[in-house]
Structures
1.
Amino acid sequence: MPKETGKTRWQDLPIGFMITDAGNAAEYHTGTWRSQQPVRNNDRCFRCGMCYLFCPEGCIHRGPDGYFFADLRYCKGCGICAQECWSDTINMVEETE
Amino acid sequence: MAKRVGIEVSIACAEAVRLANVDVVPAYPITPQTHIIEDLSQLVAEGELDAAFIPVESEHSAMSAALGAAAAGARVFTATSSQGLALMHEIVMLAPSLRLPVVMVVANRALSGPISIWNDHSDIMAERDCGWVQIFCENGQEVFDLTLVAFNVVEDERVLLPIMVNLDGFQLSHMIEPIEILDQEEADTYLRPHKAAFRLDVDNPTSMGPVGLPEYFSEAKMAADMALKGSKEVVEEELKRFGETFGRHYNVVETYKAEGAEVIILTMGSISETAMSAIDKMRTWGKKVGLVRIRLWRPFPIEEFVAAVKGAEVIACIDRAVTFGGTAGPVASEVRSCLYHLPGKPAVINFVAGLGGRDVTVDDFVTMVDRAQHYLRKGIFPPYELINIAGEEEKEAESA
């Protein structure tokens, strides 16, 4: 169901509006909802992982360098990571496009 | 061999459910549905019915458990009434959208307030637009028969919707009537073995009941509406097959002396039998009166209804629920709306009768027919009118 591929004819919907392909939530890019994006200044970051713990979308990952980053395909721009960050590493910046 | 026995209608209903060999019965007791559920729990306890009886903590849970069980592929039965149905409402709305077949008997009872345990149709009319197949029984035999028919209807792959089998609380549920009870072998010649069209399965994972974004929601509703409309054909097929198998024939709309009648009494449920007695009486006076009874309420059988009332001058349409401050009771508003565009249509005079257990007598039907004709002569068309109300005697005397 949750794909962003235009409209589906009612005749083509699965019976009972079921999702028949497991795990397809990944195809729904909630990042399109975003009006602000988290921008990091890793000079201030001591890699505590509070942003990772608090992200309600689960879209924050840890890179090989040990720093955290948000997957912008899914980040809704809620700003919780910026609010919770202990070291003011994260700033929410208006999306320009 | 089928046996005709004197039996309480609720017990006959439970017997039909036993014959259907249901897998799960989640239920919460409420007057006047109680005897159905009580008997089923006993059948399960005594090993007469191999089912899981789930004594849930509320009707909201009863319907939730029913949908869960149906999603797991079980044949499910539950029953409720009035406040119980109202408490279920949230989950009732969900069932048709999930396309899960559940058979639910509703022993119709007034909704509070004032508190009433007695019969009218206010409980079911509040669930009118939930997308369930809805059928109304006239007598105990019909309750037994239609409960069986219900399982075949909802599990048909062209339907896969829940159904409410409505029977008037007390007037039917607690009556002892002569009912022909089928034995298992006979029931099995009609009932199809249960097979879930789809179900939750760890090897083929699916999600049921996901969010419907605006891009999909209207199409999902369209699909549910088309499924409900399409169920009429299956209901008709199943009633026909039941008639061919057991000799008891049912239609989606029934008539009694309606051919050439000038006045049609329109009813649903058990008061239809009293209406027929009233019609016989009025016929001896030379009044051209007939009965049309709607058995299938959802999907509404528009063509059959229009054909049944063709040629009548006026319909005395009886509602068993008040649409407070509205344009007509729930039945009359449907009826007026499907006649509105037709040339030479009969007038529809709407009477609200039999609320909260008040009897609708032969004399009441005579009064309603007289008043319908009186209003027609005078060219007065009130939206709806409660009848047999203390304090309104003067008005009622006008048409006598």
Note: Chain B has a mean pLDDT of 97.
2.
Amino acid sequence: MLFVGYRTVLRQADATTQGRTGRAATTDNWLASLQVLDPSATIEAVLAADVPVDQAIFVIGPDDDPQLTITHFTISTLAWPRQVGLIRCRTGEATDITVPTSDVVGAALVWDRTRVSEPDAPGRAIGPHLRLITGTEATQWVSFCSP
Amino acid sequence: MGVVLFAVALAVAAWAGLGVVLLLADPVPGRDTIGRVELLCLTVLYGLGVMTLLSFAVGVLTDVNTRAPVTAMCALVGATGVWRRRELLRASLRSGPLGVGALASAIAIGATSAVVWWFARHQPLGWDGTVIWEFKAQMAFDNGGRIPPEYYRDPTRLWSHPSYPPFMPLTEAWVYGWWRGPHQQHIKVLFPVFFVVAAGMLHAGCARLGGARRWAAALAPVLLLSVPMVVFGEGGASSGYVDFPLAACFLAAVVHTLHHARTGSAQSLRFAGTLAALLPWMKQEGLVLFGTVVLMLLVATIARRPSAVQWRPIGRAAAWAVVPGVVVLGTWRLYLRHIDAELRDEYLPFTFDTLRTNADRTSTIAGSLWDELQMWDRWSVLWPMMLLATVLWVVRTRGVARVLLPAMVVLPIALDSFVYFFSGWDPVSRHIDASLPRLLLQVAPVAVLVIALTAPRFARPVAVTERAELDETLHL
């Protein structure tokens, strides 16, 4: 028992590499796909500056990207106390929507790690793959599924 | 500085735990006096339990930052226990010789814990460790030590399981409060503490139950470290999940349940019942472990008096086994209802119709369990060894303990597997894959205890049985 177990433990110790460190070590690891320096702190700062705490936000991203769920959850942990809905997109259409119950959705974070934000795209670029788009009650958030 | 503040945070909670342990223990030092290692382990478990319960209560009943009042209450609880039971504390600290055996145990516990600490230091928090527990801890820290009620009503955060009890978030928030800020990397220093507790309880359990040689009691933590799933990976002692703390608390409850079964010790009954009460406070699945402890305490009490059933001791056992847990769990459930929490039910109705409809899951559940038990990369040869040890235990041991100890491993596994018949996940195999290894982890330290207790010349069943019979005669 000792031999078999310790061999596996030692193998794992060899394979272990130190990831990101710091106050937001784990969430920074999970947001590495954003290719932003200090992604957790950056997102917190952007939301604090542009989205009032009584407004909800959407995370909008490609349904077929396995990283979408973890990106949504991670952004959601950083966006508290704002409610965070999710719009999953496929071929330019929304396939699944989790809608916040707040009266107003004030902004959306549009994420696609396969596409680099163009300079003339709407909203504010946060790194190459994420944009913050502010809006109003009348904004059709699902329209941001279209490239 | 962070290390010092962490030590202070832990010490304040542990001081309250020391008070509770001393107040629950028999007032007069005697044969049952708790040893140093066990005292330390129970102090940490009860300390964090009491501190989180106080934080929760203060957070619900007041608007003030919880840290100062909880610190004052912890100081008061600890001082009360230490003052009222100072003789007992002195006896506990002097119990057992400080010889080679004690040194070997200390080295074993220290060295194995250092390995877990290394993994905790070099790996980030796991999935649940972040999105279920640490996220809530950050919210609690930002909100004066309490998780805001609005969180429980937020339908967009159901994925973070709002209904899960707040033991771990409030523990982390407590540390954050002393640090004056959250830190996802530094908080990992908390989790090896639970490995120290489990390793210490294995040592103490062997000494308490096995009449063990000191070298053999020192071996138990080394066996625990040889289970890879315990050391690293999702749910392991270094991952930031609550499954291993739950396992450590369950182990402590099992040790005292078994000791109560063998000796009828009222002290062990009180410890088993109150430790069991912490299980559903730590995690939803702790309910199964709580139920197991309650059932075994009742079986032990009834089995000790087979000829003339005496209702008074059974009533006392039932009260100590059931009431603390029901109070803790009931309070939490009432709170969720009171604040109108949004709850996501992952399970279908627990009805016979559901069971009949999902009967075809039997092969999936049984097959997954069988496959998991053979995952050597996760479990080494823990389960085959446990099977062998169980046979030895059953052959060597007499009395109700013969059934009790193996049942404390087998029953939770059986109940947890049975619950998959009511899972709302489709396909159910996804639910099994996501949770089964962690459910097994919750009983893994008890499986190690079974193995350690049946090590060569470890258990002395005849002597133990004789002692139990003597106790019976003397009505101890």
Note: Chain A touches chain B through 37 residues (CB under 8 Å).
3.
Amino acid sequence: MCGIAALQLRNPLLHPQLGSLLSSMLCQIVDRGPDSAGLAVYNSPELVKQGTSTLSLLGKDQGLSLAGITDGIADLLPADAGTAVQVVGDTTLVSAAVDTDLLAKAVGGTLPGATIIGRGQHVAVMKSVGHPMEIAADHGLAAMAGSQGLSHTRMATESAVTAGGSHPFSVADDLCLVHNGSFSNHATVRRELKREGAVFDSENDTEVGARYIASRLKQGDTLQEALVNLGKVLDGFYTLVVTTADSMAVVRDPIACKPAIIAETHDYVAMASEYRALASLPGIDHARIFEPEPGKVYTWSL
Amino acid sequence: MVTLTIPEADMPPATAPEGIPAGIGVDLDDSPVRELNQALHDAVDGQSWTVTSPGGKHSLAVGIDADVDVTIEGHAGYYAAGMHQKGRVTITGNAGVGLAENIMSGSVHVKGDASQSAAATGHGGLVVIDGNAGARCGISMKGVDIVVGGDIGHMSAFMAQAGRLVVCGNAGDALGDSIYEARIYVKGSVASLGADCIEKPMRAEHLEELAGLLAAAGRTEDPAGFRRYGSARNLYHFHVDNSTSY
């Protein structure tokens, strides 16, 4: 099954409530995927800092002390990069005032076994195995501020129940993808992407979707175009939510196998697998509520 | 040998005893859905129920078997008013997947939109959706009447066997795919017809039937503005040319 809840806040006055609103949405989609979960939070002052890149690493224990990680990475970066490392829940966040590729190299040099699950200037990605509400609580979601957020509860089908197989998949700067459904030809598309030079972190079908979108964006597609192209190349059933630094997109497969419902007000755009996840949002009684049409790409920008 | 009996057949019909308040309210912020459904199963004819704070919860007001009026104030989740047997259920907001699934009789009215598979496998009764219905509306319908004020999604009336589907807006792709019987009336456009579904002439009896359905749904459209679709009956008969295949 899997559950999705995503929220883009148009009204900056709501930013301090992003985490609590997303947490209340997540609570209602736990039934749809109780085995693991993931979160992406954008522009949270607790997690990312303007002018720096942040990498999200899977797991709180990287085998070195925080000071050890900080020193190791700082040694590999320019002196003024201002390397900072913090643990949030089961996630290690590494920040420095360099681009993400350079930061990723320094992380790779210091922590060769680390798995990078999020990257960019605006986003922090957190995921783990277990009950989604415990994962959210462990990461302190309810207290987080931010401009938009994405959450996913997973009922695994195509790959193992591991934190690495949890969504969102974030494979390019500030790009996140969550997926309800499964891609049936992911192995074929994976081979094609590998030929183009893509390196995969997992055997997960959704990672293929994420890397496909990243590849299209790199080739100059808009987010809208990338998702239209995804519909031509990837076969299967899906409701996808994609977020970038300042936008959010929703698309369902043309047969509409998987549910999605959207609520839009002047203050926010919210998307969830089921209405009950939207029911407690402020002003929901006056929201424009609709189900996205099959095969149609919807995008909203901040 | 098993003899099927109706245990309550000899009992006098249940009616609301005098003194019971005309309206009974249930707030789902305070009561679990199971309690609501049990209370509705224990309800007696003539009662009127109002359900508040539905919050998109699933399986609301399923299996009602008494002649009661139930109003759900707000949005319902999946399988609302499923297996409906008697009485009238009104949902003032939207309904999720599988509205009135397997409805047998009685009526269900949604004032907003309904998600996919509305009135799926319905055997009888009337389902009215004032707004739009998603994909697979009336899938495998077996006698239910469905009136949709807006549009319906793709694959609606798939393998429909009996009943009537009225659409005041447009129909999505593959309408009536593999339809056995059932009559479909659409006022707007049809994106495409499914296998073995064809347009058929509107005769006087169809205009009369449609007028009755529209009136029952409280609608004011002119039946003359609709087209009728149904089974070409080419698919479900065994084709004699295939007899040598065995």
Note: The radius of gyration of chain B is 19 Å.
4.
Amino acid sequence: MAVHAGHEGPQGAGLGLRRAFMAEFAADDGAAEGVDFLEVAPENWIDVGGRYGHSFRALTERFPFVCHGLSLSLGGPTPLDRSLLEAIKHFLNSHDILCYTEHLSACTDHGHLHDLMPIPFTEDAVHYVAERVRVVQDVLERRIGVENVSYYAAPGPEMSELDFIRAVVEEADCLLLLDVNNIYVNSINFDYDPVAFLRGMPGERAIYAHVAGHVREAPDLRIDTHGATVIDPVWDLLDEAYVAFGPIPTVLERDFNLPPLADLLTEVGRIREAQSSGALSRGARGACPSQGRTRG
Amino acid sequence: MARLAPFQRLQRDFAAYIRDPENVTPPPGIEPRRMAIYARLVYNNVESVLANVFADLQEVVGKTTWRAVVRDFLRRHTVDSPYYSKLPDEFLAYLATREGGPSLPPFAADLCHYAWVKYALPLAPDMPDDAFDDDPLDLDDPVAVSSLAWPLQYTFPVTDIGPDCQPSTPPDEATYLIAYRDRHDEVGFMASNALTLRLLALVEAGSPLARSFGEIAAELARPVSRVEAAGLAIVNRLHALDVLVRA
């Protein structure tokens, strides 16, 4: 069944909103014109009042927003947090948020650890996570996107990461948040071909994509920090994604070592350029496959 | 917790190591270097918000103790809140309930609570737009304490504590404060006293002003009329600061 993810989500090139940039976005002086939409973690804004709360409300009235959750722990061992889920639902509705995504990971054991831990790639885990995604979709009354996460260790795998991701999204009939940087980081950390991996992803379900910077911990280990400029191999991989799946709406994530907003807007501009040329090359390929962008 | 599936047992062991890498055996078959990354990321993420909010505690106890405390928090405290911004609240709960752990000065809980108020009050959920008004309150008016006005009572003098003031025993007098956020989202702290906080506690418990004054007069063995006159003046000062609102 074809999944037309596009109309449910955002369009164009977006940016992860940090509090440090609220004033600049609020100024409405044209500086933020280059951003088509903004992304926030709902957990960082639910029940936030005061000046930040008011500024946030003013921004959601001006910009299209998407939400990228942090704490639902889709792969965690404790029951889904219904009260968080209801709070997220209320938040999405009250701010007219376009779509909601979460990580294909666990951030809890018996309590919250506030970081992303891997889900073992097993058949049992597929069913477990897919069922939880279904429950979330039922409560939120919308489909959600799940993100392929970066990871540094794979406990007890019984299948490949790609098979795991595919199985979860198919069984849950959910959407995909295609994190291009994470594919690149994982391809180094687990020594695989990022382009082949990317092409194996269920890109037809992609509601939007992520691109970000990371750090080089060791020659064979990268850490997904969102604290640096996007590197060229990741831009190349984003191009590959657009060729393979079309110009998916894409968010630049930047959470640490924040540069001036103008620098991030330059990167957002680069996303938009890639989307245009990706659309062109995809169009060309569609019209005349032999002249399409070469693969690999 | 329900019986864990095999993959969940892997997750449990994985997380157990992250919580306490010095004492827990890393999961088998995973390169220690990679587990160490997780332990470091989780620790740094938790530490960064706690260090930001509880900088005063970190300063008085020093880096070594501070790190030991954060590690103890990670090792032993179950964080129930899904909100990263509530980690400071969880740390207060840890301080209030912990048994053993790295030694902290006797004023640590008070100092941290005061720091938490400064962090949390500006972000607290708003009062309704029409909650505030400027008309003087009378004895018969129903009143309430604003959800953005937090009466505070500390055993230790939290406003004075720092590297050069580290009391080992509490002074005779408690420290009374009212933290408040007004209708313009300005946050203020005012020094207060036991009587004013008693009045706010009565109001918060739903007692009308007249009955609250009567109760205080009885407690003080003073004429009600005098308590009412003085009390109403206080009530209107607090009303002007958006601490007390019309109910």
Note: Chain B touches chain A through 46 residues (CB under 8 Å).
